[in-house]
Amino acid sequence: MSLEQIATQLESENSRDRMIALASLRDFSPSEAFPLIKKVLNDEVLQIRSMAVFALGIKPTEESFDILVKLLETDPDYGIRADAAGALGYLEDPRAFEPLVRAFYEDTEWLVRFSAAVSLGNLKDIRAKEALISALKGDEVVLHQAAIAALGEIKALDAVPEMLNFVSSPDWLVRQRLAEALGHLPSEQSISALKYLVKDSHPQVHQAAALSLQRLETES
């Protein structure tokens, strides 16, 4: 479809037509796509809004950052706030650090906090270490997964002792994220933990541990 056809279809009363039109913008540049993405940011269908927010992260313009921060901080739907947090991570804009940390600490919905933690890892900003370590002290397993992965992304080497508290987590995804993260954190403790995790009963855990162990032993 041409941009003109997409613009027309975005006005359709049929939500499926609008969804297809929005997906078709992937073939256009951010500057071409952005005005049309904006048209459906307040669509009555939540799935279309979610797609539009995601599109702002992968088709960024100068305006994308401010729009996403506003959505993260004020949208009444927690799913949209989570989408905005995720899209800010795609931007990899260092300005996103402060709003993401605020969302992580202040939002009451676990999905928003999860998305904020993942995006803090995408920013690769070591300042996120304190917030991410705090997630390890809570009871939400999905936040353990996100925080451990993000600590690996930001290469928070001094967080390894806190991370190793999860080497025997009952949740295999936590153990897998730990095995992957330790591959970015070269230390004797990391290697020792990976030698333990490589014997894990879950195939995805021991595969991740084997790859990380190989990486660390090659680099040492």
Automatic annotation (TrEMBL):
The keyword Zinc does not apply. InterPro entries: ARM-like, ARM-type_fold, PBS_lyase_HEAT. Transmembrane segments: none annotated. The keyword Repeat does not apply. It comes from the Bacteria. Pfam families: HEAT_2 (PF13646). Gene3D superfamilies: Leucine-rich Repeat Variant. Keywords: Antenna complex, Phycobilisome. This is HEAT repeat domain-containing protein.
